[in-house]
């Protein structure tokens, strides 16, 4: 796919020349300026580099005090963010909030706990081998979502807990280039039902207004009942749908590309991670401190985006089985992250909550 003033987005066009200018922001170059990387004389690595001096990994990371917000990047456009890599201790993955603002907006277009944005909402490391999100050994968090902007981009990270984070590593790579008129803005929103009330559905996304396309879902799902939990349907209400949706799935495991209760070849859950869908995390109880089964699953609509012209709402049912072959509405802990592109302005999101609202317990 050719776009962004010749900036290439696929293997087939890698040889094509472009006038886009590649820049990268990290703790070694806070502004991304050309020829300004690795110049720090102070930083978290200053002690280790004391015999070597400037240019020898003096500032590879930042500290995040409790109850504080750090600005990771402020970029003047036009341009497109191409890759974000971040890492820190997993116990902070629900107490760090990632926010992204486009073109000077007051309310963020991305507002998600760090771990959930990278499909690791349970604060326990899990490998993800997908195209737009990749999580590698020891918690290397990678995003390849294309994020175009016209005037400016601002990325922040908030530590909503009281504990100081001694080392937060990050690198944000982007291109300064023209952005065509038909390019929409990237959005991501987090919601949690803990616990889901009996007979109600979990809302993944609501109050989306404008034109756009939906590109992905991540769910961190904890079951609070015995037995199978994934009979519920995902429903997409678009462009004026009221009581009934335009798109209605056939079951939770079906939406994430699985079948028949995610059963593996040898019985039990068969975890998997692939370019566009996965049940990549299955956390089983240990009979002592862990009392519930927890799952992480993603579905990327990269090859099959769900397009809408005016509005969009998405829900998922939590549904198991009870006696006499009847469905049982479940009261599970469900946290969802929705990913989509749309025109601006967007409807401001609901309050994400405090540390206790987000806590993995």
From TrEMBL:
User: What Pfam families would the database entry show?
Assistant: DUF2961 (PF11175)
* Protein name, UniProt field: DUF2961 domain-containing protein
